[in-house]
Amino acid sequence: MKDASPQTVYLKDYTPFGYTVEHVDLTFRLSPDATRVISRIRFAPNPAATDRTFFLHGEELNLISARIDGAEVSPEVTDKGLTCEVPDTPFTFEAEVEIAPARNTALEGLYMSNGMYCTQCEAEGFRKITYYPDRPDVMATFDVRIESDLPVLLSNGNPGPRGEGHAEWSDPWPKPAYLFALVAGELEARSDVFTTRSGARVDLNLWVRPGDLHKTEWGIEALKKSMRWDEEVYGREYDLDVFNIVAVDDFNMGAMENKGLNIFNSSAVLASPDTSTDANFERIEAIIAHEYFHNWTGNRITCRDWFQLCLKEGLTVFRDSQFTADMRSAPVKRISDVIALRARQFPEDQGPLSHPVRPESFQEINNFYTATVYEKGAEVIGMLKRLVGDDAYSKALDLYFERHDGEACTIEDWLKVFEDATGRDLAQFKRWYSQSGTPRLSVEERYEGSDYTLTFRQTTPPTPGQAEKAPQVLPIAVGLLNPNGDEVVPTTLLEMTEGEQSFTFPNMPSKPVPSLLRGFSAPVVLDHEASGEDKAFLLAHDTDPYSRWEAGRSLARASLIASILERTEPDAAYLDGLKRLVTDPALDPAFRALMMSLPSQNELAQVLHEKGVTPDPDAIFEAVESLLRAMAERWRDVLPALAEEARVSAPYAPDAEQSGKRALGSAVLGLQTRLDGGAAAKAQFENADNMTLSLSALGALVRADAAEDALAAFETRWSGDRLVMDKWFGIQIMLAPPQVAPDRTRALTEHPAFDWTNPNRFRAVMGSLAGNHAGFHRADGAGYEILGEWLSRLDEKNPQTAARMASAFQTWTRYDDERRAKARATLERLYEKPGLSGDMAEMVGRMLG
Ligand code: ARG
Ligand code: ZN
């Protein structure tokens, strides 16, 4: 039996809380096993509400005493919260509770990480700190007093008086409790100053444990770039005297946008050239921007309830992608986002975990911090911007900030702003928020007289709870090329609203080649049976970088599928076309590296599944391997020159230019290793003077099964650095030959440094197993078993991280009977486990269907 019968919450049941909160005073007497939290909350009846039930959330709290307007009261307490008789006029509620941060292994609420106190309150963690209406539509100003002998004591807002053993903070901006934060510890800061556009001085601090200060420069630079960008592009200024960021080693997610006190997983903020890869630097820059941008899209304007999560997350992801596109290369960013969307969101949207961008029900909200809410949520905003145009988008955003500052909003409010700013009716567009599943778009061409007509058809397969789908608005960006390669129709936006719709281009002197869905203008699967010839033509001539890349991708997909189904040799014409592109010195090396990347094995499994073929993970693995071998053979003559071109002689910088070269170099090294068995990779590993080169060499060696010495050397050198050791654990599983991946995973769980209660370490091991497609899906079920065991174990300590990792099983029904039986047995064993968390029960329950 499950822990407690999980409660399902519905969007349609929303009602406002019966009381408003005018102000909150909190005092913390910190102690690892017995922290006292004393709260003083000023409530008033909410004129907008009818239900006057006074219920305060509270979990795992020991209530010491409670008072209303100074008089002791005895509330009725359950394991979910308390209820109490209250006056029908404004009143002050006070409570003293005791909590034990040192015993908090769920890392939600107030907990400890390496001797430091920190908090994570989103989504519903504040209720583990004190009794409170823990819902985002209750907003209040907070004053906080922290009592502790630790040297650094932080909370939200601006600093107040600081004395021996205590500090005070005051946050003048009304906020929901999920944005509350507290940090206390022995910390050091890199400090800086930012002057806002209107001349206000902001003190910036990035706090870390002693010893990590050399990893803080990049984070502070990224923060300053983000602050400037949000002023220039969105007209948004920062609004407090200080902005603090703290790095924490034990953290369930990437980072958290608490008002004025962002808390980061150290993997999402700490960087140095020795210990971090180019990809790490880029990700850190993006996450710092993301959390900073939340100050306006999330904090100043927040969500009415958790169903509206995409209101802040979709928008903030969209904003951080714009930022990265501006800081680096826009086409490279767009292509990378499409790769990530297909790798993470498509499988979710096409399997048992499919849910709308704005879900309509949930049991555990932590299970809905998903690629659909975040990444598809951002795609929806990208489509809206394309449909209304850039100027109207800016106007709508200005109106959004002006109209809703200080409010807790809904998707309806968001869309209304666009309707008012543009006069457009967005009723149909709204389906993007309510319909789940990935639409499929098919195309037919007709050329008659001089009329060229494209006929599109859209369908969305059924998803859990949604059998019938209505047509969605699809912005389809199209360009047309004539047979000599010139663009005859530049990018044009077709607005599809019907299930089937035709668009005619008159006066076309010859039949053009269409370049469809340019820039990936809608998050759909395009079923376009273009000939290999047309694809090769687009690969050579398309002016839209995304479509050009996609032409190559789809040739690779076709070649791989043919070799899986018909045992054909890799497509030589494709390899030669690609070779011309990859050796073209006029093209950006980063783009060339992306051109060399192949569709993931997981994506190929999905393609086969949709063709009605049961995917065989081993055959897929073999097909990819033989394509890479063929590529290496066929490009043998140009690999040395490419490797030379990818060499960077300037001092290391994690910028777009150098990263692009190293990405190309890494792809080339992968091919070289297939020819030389690892000689070039060994040399690169030995001479590497930065982590990017070191890790790409190590990866190539692991793949070639020639990494034993390098892994040992790497471990010796980096055993003192947690974040680097996460890479060491991860890479040898992720890139292991599939047959050995489960056993290697098991062996590594016995390594003394496998500190599995640390979410980063757990993910490095188990997430990498899940990422090794043929290894995880090994026919004997060993991959499923080991992950199942560890999910069960972690669930007892940290349900949130365990439940997230469980989604590794989301595609289990695609495979053959034997694999399915093994996956099902693992999931059922988990589901039946006594005391299973509600988080895990919801995830496994949905996957079992
Ligand atoms: N709001 C954070 C972000 O996207 C994510 C925090 C999610 N935390 C959680 N426990 N679900 O930046
Ligand atoms: Zn976010």
Key words describing this protein structure:
Immunoglobulin-like, 849 residues, EC 3.4.11.2, Neutral Protease, domain 2, binds arginine, Peptidase_M1_pepN, 5-stranded mixed sheet, 21% strand, alpha+beta, 8-stranded mixed sheet, binds zinc ion
Task: Please explain how this structure is put together.
41% of the residues lie in helices and 21% in strands. It is of the alpha+beta class and 849 residues long. Among the domains are: 178 residues, Immunoglobulin-like (Sandwich), CATH 2.60.40; 133 residues, Neutral Protease Domain 2 (Neutral Protease, domain 2), CATH 1.10.390.10; 83 residues, Aminopeptidase N, middle-beta domain (Immunoglobulin-like, Sandwich), CATH 2.60.40.1840; 131 residues, Peptidase M1, alanyl aminopeptidase, C-terminal domain (Zincin-like fold, Alpha Horseshoe). The strands form nine sheets. Strands 6-5-9-3-2-12-15-14 form an eight-stranded mixed beta sheet, with no helix packed on it. Helix 5 crosses helix 6, helix 17 packs antiparallel against helix 18 and helix 19 packs antiparallel against helix 20. The radius of gyration is 27 Å and the shape is globular. The two termini are 17 Å apart. The model has no long low-confidence stretch (mean pLDDT 98). The chain binds arginine and zinc ion. Arginine binds next to strand 20 and helix 2. Belongs to the peptidase M1 family.
